[in-house]
Amino acid sequence: MKITELSIVFVLIFFPFFYILTFHTHDAQEANELAYRYKTALQTAVMDAGAVMHQNEKQHAEAGYDSAKFVKADKELALTTFTQTMALNMGIQDDKAAIQHMFDYIPAIVVMDYDGYYIYAKETEMTGEMEKSHKHVWSPKKPYTYSDSDGNSINFTLDGYVYAYDAGARKWIEGFQEELASNSTITLLQDSTTFEQVRRSRIVTRIQDELADVINRHNEFARRNGVSYVFTMPLVSQEDWYNSINDTGIMAFIQGIAVGDQKINNYAIGGGRLVKKTAVVGGIDPSTGIKYYHPATCNPGFRAEEVFTTAKQAAARGYFEYDCSAHVSLLSEKTEPVLE
User: Are residues 147 and 194 in the same domain?
Assistant: First the structure.
C-alpha cells in the first residue's frame, strides 16, 4: 500500500476521534465558563446582601457598654438584594417566572444574626391545592442554644455575651462570659478557652443540623417542579464555618444546575462587615494619679496603661470615664487666633 493510501486510511480512521475530542474540549470549556459565571453570581449576590443586612439594634448604646456585634440583621433587605444581584448576573432580572424557578436550585439561605439565625427555604402550606402547597418562607429566629447535664441552659451570641439559666441559683442571668464567671455556678462560664470552643462548635452544629433537614426536604419540592437532582448538604470547610460566625452574615447554596455533563454544587458566605468601634484607652492622669478611660481618638495627655474594646471592660478594671468634650473645649480656649 502506498504512503498516500496509508495517509488516507489514517485520516479516515482517526478523524472521528479528533473531531469528538475537539467537540468535548469545546463543551468542557463552555461548561467551565458557565460554572464560573454561576459561582461568581452567587458570591457577588451574597457579598451585596451581606453589605446591606445590618443595622444597630441598640442605638442608645452605640458608644456605650454593649457588644460591637449587637446588631439586628435586616433579612428582608438582604434577601431582596441577593435576589436582584443573582437575577441581574444571570440575565433574568425582568423575568419573574425565571427568578422564581431560580430558587428551585437554591435549597436554603441562612442569615446569621447576633443571637440566632434564620433560614429561608421552601415549606409546605395547607392551601388545598397541590401545585400551590409550598412556598419560600423565613423560619422563626432560632437561638444558638446549649444545655448541660446540670440543667443549665445558655443562649450564645456571636461574641462572649450570653443569656443563661443558672440552675444552681435558679435564676436567669445575662452578660459577658468573663463578667459572669465569678458569680455563676455554670461550669462552662468559668473557663474562657473552653467557653469559646464550645460556643463556636455549638453554633456551627446547630446551623449544620438544621440545614441538613431543610435541604433534605427541598428534594421533595424540587421533584414536583421537575428537578431530578438530589440535593445534599455541601461540604463546607471547618474554616469557612468558623469564619461565618465571626460576624453577622449570610450563607447561600446553589445546586443542581446543569453545566455540560455535570451539575453545579456551590456555596458562598458574606459577612455583615460591621464597622469596628474605636478602641478604648485606659490611662492615669499624672497630676492626680486617677485612672481614666477615653476613646483612642481623644488625647488628654494621660499615661496609657491598657487598651480595651469597650468602655464597660475599662470600667470593670477600675477606670473612670473621662469627659473628652471638656478637654476639647479647654484646648479651643487656649488656641491662638489665626492671623490673616
Answer: yes
Q: List 55's β-bridge partners, or say none.
A: 72
Beta bridge partners of 136: 122
Residues 143-152 pLDDT 10s: 999 999 999 9
Do 196 and 249 fall within a single domain? yes
What are the cell numbers at 89?
A: 448576573
State which of 249, 271, 293 marks the end of a domain.
271
71's grid cell: 446588631
The pTM score is 0.68
Q: 155 has which bridge partners?
A: 145, 163
Q: Write down the pLDDT at residue 73.
A: 79
Nearest CA-CA partner of 219 in 235, 205, 202, 232: 232
Give 104's contacts (C-beta < 8 A, 6+ positions apart). 221, 222, 225, 227, 256
Q: What are phi and psi of 143, to 5 degrees?
A: -70, 160
Say which amino acid occupies 121: A
262-288 residue pLDDT tens: 777 888 888 764 434 456 788 899 999
Structural domain including 212 reads 24-271
Q: Give one DSSP letter per residue of 22-78, joined into a string.
A: HHHHHHHHHHHHHHHHHHHHHHHHHHHHHHHSEEES-GGGTTSSS-TT-EEE-HHHH
- Look up residue 20 and give its three cell numbers: 469528538
The span from the CA of 266 to the CA of 262, in Å, is 13
The answer to whether 180 touches 164, Cβ cutoff 8 Å, is yes
Q: Which three cell numbers stand for residue 193?
A: 478557652
Residues 219 and 250 reside in one and the same domain: yes
**223 pLDDT exceeds 80?**
no
3-state secondary structure of 11: helix
* 76: its cell numbers: 428582608
Closest CA to 273 of 255, 249, 289: 249
Spatial distance between the Cα atoms of 266 and 236, rounded to a whole number of angstroms: 9
